[in-house]
Amino acid sequence: MLPYGRQSIDAADVEAVVAALGSDWLTTGPRVAGFEADLEKVAGAPCVTVTNGTTALHAAYAAAGVTRGDEVVTTPMTFVATASGAAMLGAKVIFADIEDESANIDPAAVEAALTERTRVIAAVDYAGVPADYDRLRKVGESSGALILGDAAHSIGSLDRGRPVGSLADLTTFSFFPTKNFTTGEGGAVASIRPELVTRLRAFRTVGVVREDFRNPDEGAWWYEVPEFGLNYRLPDVLAALGSAQLRRLGAFKERRRQLSARYDELLAGVPGLRLPTQRPEVDPMRHLYPVRVLDGRRREVFDRMREAGIGVQVNYIPVYWHPVFEDLGYRRGMCPNAEAFYAEELSLPLFADLSDDDQDRVVETLRGILGS
């Protein structure tokens, strides 16, 4: 089965991991700090590593002070963790609809959803294309809400030359194997606000701090926990893989750009198919290639592509359709653009090691199904 996404591991990655395994530090060591410094160069802001993209979101919401009684406005066109990380801290999640063209959250819908209880506006850079953070920040000014960017798809992307980690108050990343580069499992949170970086570092380390003590007159062993946190620390072994992978991020981006351009060319004008678009001012690291299959044929096309050995995917089920949100009173029909997008979306294989021949097979199979 040709997957829709997969990692690219080379000899340098293996060498970096083996070296970490042979060192004195398997976790909480120098490779973590080194990886965070490498990430900052790409993200455009200081980064705190964590165990995965889901814990990155949980840590970001915790650093933002999200708690019971707060509201978090976010998109339904995302993986459930974008919403569940806020809900697990007691916040009420408000879903704002998406833009039809980009599948990113619609700033006008966000504005309509804001209240005096809005603590965070959480956007998602769908398929690697950055959300319109400039508009979102302007919208959020009236409520004082923090802006969070779920950039699980978009590390390496730029908006008007600015890296995605510098566009929001908090930005979360995922380094899962299908993402733009991988640490196996892993994630990070970037922030342009130093006080949030400090809170993130404490939260991902079980709340432990080693300065600004309430009781400062103890010995060198002393540490304190002023607020609860969790053990979300990324090990040195995985950080070593991450630093090695980051050296190829530019090559990964260029190959994804080439493949996306080939899809654009090879699928142009195919009846029953709508191709993805992006704002002209963005330079995305294209994580997904999401087409829209028209005329109610998405499920048929999905099943027939899978039968042909091509691992297409659907990204995503509207979050509030999941039983956990249905049980909280959320109902279908809340975000019509997102539901229309879901009914037609199909992600075609896209990853750095995808060959032109395999991509041609994807295109020929898809064209054949749509033409039958």
UniProtKB/TrEMBL annotation:
GO molecular function annotation: pyridoxal phosphate binding; transaminase activity
InterPro entries listed in its UniProt record: DegT/StrS_aminotransferase (IPR000653), PyrdxlP-dep_Trfase (IPR015424), PyrdxlP-dep_Trfase_major (IPR015421), PyrdxlP-dep_Trfase_small (IPR015422)
Keyword Transcription in record: no
Residues bearing PTM N6-(pyridoxal phosphate)lysine: K179
CDD domains per UniProt: AHBA_syn
Active site positions, chain numbering: K179 (proton acceptor)
Keywords: Aminotransferase, Pyridoxal phosphate, Transferase
Cofactor requirements of the protein: pyridoxal 5'-phosphate
GO terms of biological process kind: polysaccharide biosynthetic process
Pfam families reported in the protein's UniProt record: DegT_DnrJ_EryC1
Source domain of life: Bacteria
Protein family according to the UniProt entry: Belongs to the DegT/DnrJ/EryC1 family.
Protein name, entry field: Putative aminotransferase
Organism: Actinoplanes missouriensis (strain ATCC 14538 / DSM 43046 / CBS 188.64 / JCM 3121 / NBRC 102363 / NCIMB 12654 / NRRL B-3342 / UNCC 431)
